[in-house]
Write a structure and sequence with these properties.
Elements lengths: L1 H35 L15 H13 E7 L5 E11 L2 E6 L11 E5 L2 E12 L4 E6 L9 E2 L9 H5 L5 E6 L7 E11 L3 E5 L10 E4 L4 E13 L2 E13 L6 H4 L1
Parallel strand pairs: 2-7
Antiparallel strand pairs: 1-2, 1-4, 2-3, 3-6, 4-5, 5-6, 8-9, 8-11, 9-10, 10-13, 11-12, 12-13
Amino acid sequence: MIKFLKWVRTLFWGSVLVVSLAMITLAIVLNSQFINTPRLPYKHNISNEYSSEYKASIEKSRYSAVQIHSMGGAFIISSTTGTYFKANGKYYVITVEHGIYGPCALLRVEYDGKSYACKEYIKLDKANDYAIIEIDGAIPNRKPINIPEDLPRGSQWRTSYSILNKIIYTGYPNSTGPLTLKGDVVGYANSDYLYVFSHAYMGSSGAGVFSTKGKYIGIVTAIDIGQTEFGVDILENVVLVTPVFKVDWSVILD
């Protein structure tokens, strides 16, 4: 009888040990699969299809893109995109003037759910549709472009705006994003604006346009609207871009 009880006890603890080892093994396998499962978002996981120079331009576009909310009368809020930049040790954002609805105190620059206050409107240019806004300090996890270093120089201006030159921009269409798109220069509007074959929607206005060489060359201004036999037609894949040689950079450089 005693031998039988010892045998039962040994069998019991042996079973417990086997079950425990099986559970530990299962947990290790599941944990390994969980760790190795891809997750989104990879905010800056850029395709290896592109050259290192091209990828650096994409990163510059993504890291400098911010969202802007401006409140005007009757609590109307405008949502646009801007490019975060640094000049002479100060921090700024450049965007479209038509997205500024109210005073500096009612404007917020946003990224990743956090907002940053407007310090001063440096330049509101209605004719050329751009606004330069000074902000009070750096934005964490953002990398500003540098002005004038990241502007084209000499013959780079002509090359940047040449027909079928490839471009990149990052914006917040319909307050979604940041989303990065590419396109091509396809024409000019009265020598004042570029036509770019890409895509843009409400909220993309103000996005910075970059060449694949990493130069800041333009501002997404609008999408093309034309008259057809069926009425007004919105061409969402033809984007109007303001070239940045129209920006008066002296207001922040002098």
